[in-house]
Structure formats: C-alpha cells, structure tokens
Design goal:
The complex is a heterodimer. In chain A, 71% of the residues lie in helices and 8% in strands. Chain A is built from ten helices and four strands. Chain A starts with a helix and ends with a helix. Helices cover 34% and strands 24% of the residues of chain B. Chain B has eight helices and ten strands. Chain B has a six-stranded mixed beta sheet, sandwiched between helices. In chain B, β1 and β2 form a beta hairpin. The longest helix of chain B is centred in the last third of the chain and has 16 residues. Chain B is globular and about 45 Å long. The chains are: A alpha+beta, B alpha/beta.
C-alpha cells in the first residue's frame, strides 16, 4: 500500500466522521459541551493561578530582613557590611539606617520625645535592611540568607517578617495542587464521557460494523471513523472550554483592574496565553481520542457477524 | 476449492447443526446447498466465511485449512470470498456506489481504480446509472443485485450466497440465479444455499442435499448430466 491512497483514505474518513457528527448535531454538541465545561474549570483556575503569581511577584519586599548590629560595633561596620552583602547574588539591595537617623525618626513618629531626652545615649543600634533577590525570595532562600547574616560577628539580631508571605505562598501551592487534582479528575471525566458517547455510537451502527467485518474489514478499519469522531469531539469541546474561559476573563477584567486601582497597584488581569489555549485544545483532543480508542477497541472487537 | 471433512458444528445452546458433513466442491463449480430450514445450509456457509468455526473436523477453503487462520487473519481471508445475504445487508445511509465500493476501500484499492470497478460491477448486475441512489430507493430485487455487485466487485474466486432469492418473487428469483450462473460461466466457484427446489430445477447445477445436519445426497443435476457438461459432472463425492 503506498502512502497516497492511505492518506487519502484517512482524510476521507476524517471528513466522513465530521459529516456524520453534523448529521446529528444535538448529541454531538451536548458531548462537546460536557467536555468544554469539564476542561474550562481547570483552565480557568490555571489562568487565575498565573495571575496570582504575577500579582505576588513583587512580594520579595515582604521578605525584607532587618539586621540589628551590636551596640559596641564600630560606626564604620554598618556601611562595610552593607557593601559586603550587596555583592551577594541572593541580595537585591541593602539600606543602611544609622542609629542617629533611626533615633530622629523614632522621636518624630513615636511621641516618646520627652522620654528619649532623658536618656544620655542613643539606645538604638545601627540597622541594615536587606532585601533578598527575587530568586532568593522563597521561604527557603530567605532562611538561608538569614543564617548567613546572623553569622556575622557584629550582628546582634536578625528579624524576618515573612510569616504572611509564607502563608500566601503555601496557600498558592495548595491551590495549585487542587487545580492539578481537579484537572486530573475532570480529564478522566472527559475520557469517560467520550468513551460512553462512542460506545452508544458503535451500538447504533452495529449492523454497519457487522457488514464491514463480513466483507473483510479489520477491527482497526472499523475503529477508525470512531477515533476521528473522538478527535472532533475533542476539538469542539476544547474550543468550547477556551471560549468559556475567554468570556469569563472578559467579564472579570474591568472589575479586577478597578480593584487593583483601588489598592494603588498597576496590576492588570492577564488573559489566557496562546500556549494555554492551544494546550487545552491538545489535551482535549488527546483525552477524547483516548476515550474513543478505549471504547472502540473494546466494543468493536465484541461485534462479530452472526 | 472447498472441502469439508467430517465437520461437526454444535452451537453453544447445544443444538447440533452439522453432524459429520463431508463434501468437496471443485474450483469453477456451481453448487446448490439444499434442504429444509435447519438442515445445516447456513451453518456450512458460515463455516466457509469463518463466521463460525467447526466443533470438529476440517474445513478447507481455497487451499487453506481454516483451523490455521487466527482471528487476525480472518479479515484478509474474507476478502477472497464474495458473500451474498438474504437480507442484502446494505448500508442504508450511503449511496449504492459506496456500498459496492466497501470491499475495495477496505482492501486499500486506489480511488480511481475503485470508481472503475464499481461501475463495472454495477454494469454486470444491470444497475449502471443507479450509483447515487440509496438502497431504500431501490426495489428488493435491485437491492439484492447491489448485494451481488458488492460481493463480486473484489473479483473473488469464490462466491457464496445464503437464500439470495428468499424475499423475491419467482421471476426476480430466476433472474438472480441466472446472474450467479453468469459469474460461474466466467470461472467463479459459486455456492448457493436455497430451499427453492423449483428454482434449482431451472438452473442446472450440482446439488448437495442436507438433512438433519448430514449430507443426504450429493447428486449431479440430471439435466446437467444429460447435457454432458463435464465440468460439474463426476466431481461429486462418492
């Protein structure tokens, strides 16, 4: 068998199966809609997670580390340490707050001015505020950096106020896992739904399959149109999923941008990437093909002419 | 072309359809399988087309022992045989041309070749010009001719038919039988199962008469014998 007739026959089957689907559009559309809704949910959550990640990307400021030097450390130590640490790859910036400046600020803000006047010397230490680099802005990275900073002889205490950021990233991590779980379950649902649709399809065309087998069709030949039906269901369902999410994002963009504006943020809702859309189409087609393959292999083998 | 050797067939429900059937059909012969319904005619055809397997005994078709053909080999085996059914078994949602083309499509014949051979097959059964009709637009007799065209389009060396005239009135039935005879005349081995003895008398050919799952008589048609057409005569099993 040469390649050209083989290709032509596949093309013919592909178009033929589309024609048959168009012939009974209601049932096919319902199947596609089920696939679409099932895949829209994980796709939407993925877009949501992408946006959360984008919104929290500049949260490395939340990991700012305050380093308090020992009172007896020499005046020159603060700028020296700042210089040293700035050169580290896991440090984005270091701000020096000399004890004098800190006192002035504290006096203005705290309202303890009179009490401070009673002190003979400045009780505040020199302070360095270390902002970790973006790459180190993870609970782990910050912990490592904290250890390095503490090790310095002149350092008294190191304080990281990262608890809430830790909680947020943990939440996002859990959410990501939930999305994966949901996606896996809904993907399984797609396989089952398509499998069932193809099963009914095959039962409806039982006599046709019998005739084909009688005139010498292999199981593979009889199965082929059903596999292509599965591909069409997947394409249709994937298209519906992408449309649903595109509409949902369209509805949310304005309010979310307004909300960001109220927080003084220039955050903008990101839509689906082309990769995500194509990925969902590909996944839909793959799952749907898998469902039809499972159903067709099983049920076509069982049909024998009598 | 076909040899049955002590073939038994017992169905899962316990019914014994064939109880030790032996006969030989030579290449190029035309043979009628007759007998009352339930005598085992259909079982023999099903064993030939590998729709069923014998419980015991050997079935040899076109020099192949069917016992040696596994389920993966069945499709290729069936492509050598043209089968005609009493109920035609046409695909009603497709035009005549597609119905006739089915065995060629399955066998992977190129498109242009398919068109040519479909027209030739339809011409042979007198249905040229009906390519785009659907089966339900045709009469029963015409539908049976489509079934025959589909059976011969692959140019099989063996044509088997199960009660092909069962639903036809006598005149149409005789037309169909003459059609089978014409294919036989060009060298195709033809086996027709029928209980219509009247019809058999009008088409000269050997008969294998079955009764209760056994070969009752395997005789050469008297008319044929007297006409001394030797190709069929003398080849019946002793």
């Amino acid at each position: 068998m040469t390649l050209k007739p083989w290709l032509a026959r596949h093309a013919q089957t592909l178009i033929g199966s589309l024609g048959r689907i168009m012939h009974q559009p209601t049932g096919a559309l319902l199947t596609m809609a089920v696939i679409g809704v099932a895949l829209a949910l994980p796709l939407f959550l993925t877009v949501f997670l992408d946006n959360s990640r984008a919104a929290t990307a500049n949260l490395n400021q939340g990991f700012d580390i305050s380093v308090y030097l020992k009172k007896q450390a020499a005046r020159s130590r603060a700028p020296a340490l700042a210089d040293l640490w700035r050169r580290r790859s896991d440090v984005a910036s270091v701000r020096v707050i000399p004890a004098d400046a800190a006192l002035v600020e504290f006096r203005q803000r705290s309202g303890f001015g009179a009490a401070l006047d009673a002190l003979t010397d400045n009780p505040l230490p020199d302070t360095l505020v270390v902002t970790p680099a973006l790459s180190a802005s993870t609970p782990k990275g910050v912990a490592a950096l904290e250890q390095v900073l503490t090790a310095s002889d002149d350092v008294d205490t190191v304080q990281v106020d990262s608890a809430w950021v830790n909680r947020l990233t943990t939440w996002l991590d859990i959410l990501r896992r939930i999305v994966w779980l949901a996606a896996a379950l809904l993907g399984l649902a797609v396989v089952l739904v398509v499998g069932n649709t193809i099963r009914l399809d095959i039962l409806n065309r039982r006599s046709e399959i019998e005739v084909m087998k009688l005139v010498g069709a292999t199981d593979g030949f009889a199965r082929r149109p059903f596999l292509y039906s599965g591909v069409w269901y997947g394409l249709g369902g994937g298209g519906i999923a992408v449309s649903i999410v595109a509409i949902a994002i369209g509805l949310l963009t304005q309010p979310v941008n307004n909300l960001a504006g109220l927080y003084g943020s220039d955050f903008r809702l990101h839509g689906m990437t082309l990769t995500a859309a194509l990925g969902v189409l590909g996944i839909a087609v793959t799952l749907s093909w898998l469902g039809s393959w499972l159903a067709a292999s099983r049920h076509i083998r069982a049909i024998e002419p009598t | 072309m076909i040899r049955f050797d002590q073939v038994h067939k017992r169905y899962p429900n316990g019914r014994e359809a064939l109880a030790g059937v032996s006969f030989t059909i030579e290449a190029g012969e035309m043979v009628f399988l007759t007998g009352h319904s339930g005598a085992g005619k259909s079982s023999i055809l099903k064993l030939i087309a590998l729709i069923e397997r014998p419980s015991r005994g050997q079935v040899i078709v076109a020099d192949q022992n069917t016992a040696g053909i596994n389920s993966a080999g069945v499709p290729r085996f069936r492509r050598q045989i043209g089968v005609v059914f009493q109920d035609h078994k046409l695909l009603h949602d497709r035009p005549i041309a597609d119905n006739v083309a089915l065995p060629l499509i399955i066998a992977g014949v190129p498109k242009r070749e398919i068109d040519k051979r479909v027209r030739a097959a339809l011409d042979q059964v007198g249905l040229l010009g009906k390519e785009q009709s659907t089966p339900l637009q045709l009469s029963t007799g015409e539908q049976q001719r489509v079934g025959i065209a589909r059976a011969v389009v692959g140019k099989p060396q063996l044509l088997i038919a199960d009660e092909p005239t069962g639903n036809l009135d006598p005149q149409l039935a005789i037309d169909i039988m003459r059609l089978f005879k014409r294919f036989n005349d060009v060298g195709v081995t033809v086996v027709v199962a029928t209980h219509d003895l009247h019809l058999i008398d009008r088409v000269g050919a050997r008969r294998i008469v079955l009764s209760a799952g056994r070969v009752a008589t395997a005789v050469t048609d008297p008319a044929m014998a007297s006409a001394a057409t030797a190709n069929a005569a003398g080849t019946g099993p002793a």
